Write the structure tokens for this entry.
Amino acid sequence: MASIPGTIFINYRKDDSSWNALALYNELQKYFTKEQIFKDFNTILPGDDFVVSIDNALRKCDVLIVVVGKNWLQIKDVAGKRRLDDADDFVRLEIATALARGIQVIPVLFDDVPMPRPDELPDDMKALCRRQFIEIDSKRFDDDVRNLAEAIKKVLPDGVIRVTPGQRETAHSSQPYNAGAGTGSNPPPMQKPDNNLVWAILSTILCCLPLGIVAIISATKVDNLWNSGQHSEAVREAKKAKDWAIYSAIAGVVVIILYFIIAVGSGSY
């Protein structure tokens, strides 16, 4: 991380948000290079001193993401003591250190978890409650992470290396920063997909009833998902509706061909 500007540190509790943190780490690579994102499993090598590695990473990072899951506040150690009340707890140390050093700290709340109250946190973490948080729902994961990435881009320093969706494999750490494409810019708006309901209905009437019904079910979900802000889900359901309409049409053609083969065969006797 030493020579890479715009580094992002993911803070999480393994017993609470291990999979959420991993999914977040992978999804953020659509918007930033892998080398910019610090997470213990991808950066700390066997034999490294964990405390030293974490401290060095925090000295170089620009943004600390605090992943908060359902049990983040209440997880206890083997002695029954709440981990956040332990002054040597790594999650607490990382957050408290980042707050003390003036690092940009972004709480990320998963699965409708409320923001912790000041009275629920130790003194050196209370400032976390004053930081604007971002919520991530599994049903709109892609869109929520894109919003998080845009928030991160607005606070990263000049000279940051960024990638855009679809360019991750071609991005290089020496790529110059384009000031016009960075801070404050938004990704192109996603276009509302065709729900393919007409094709689903036609395939049901003219071709294969069971497969056509599956297409209709997916098609009827598209508008509701889009209007509720679940754009990625709407696109997936629209594609499913189209695919099942095609399957229905193919099945209908196969049935017709088999019918004629059997009819011709029967007439030959």
Remarks:
- Residues 231-267 form the longest helix (37 residues).
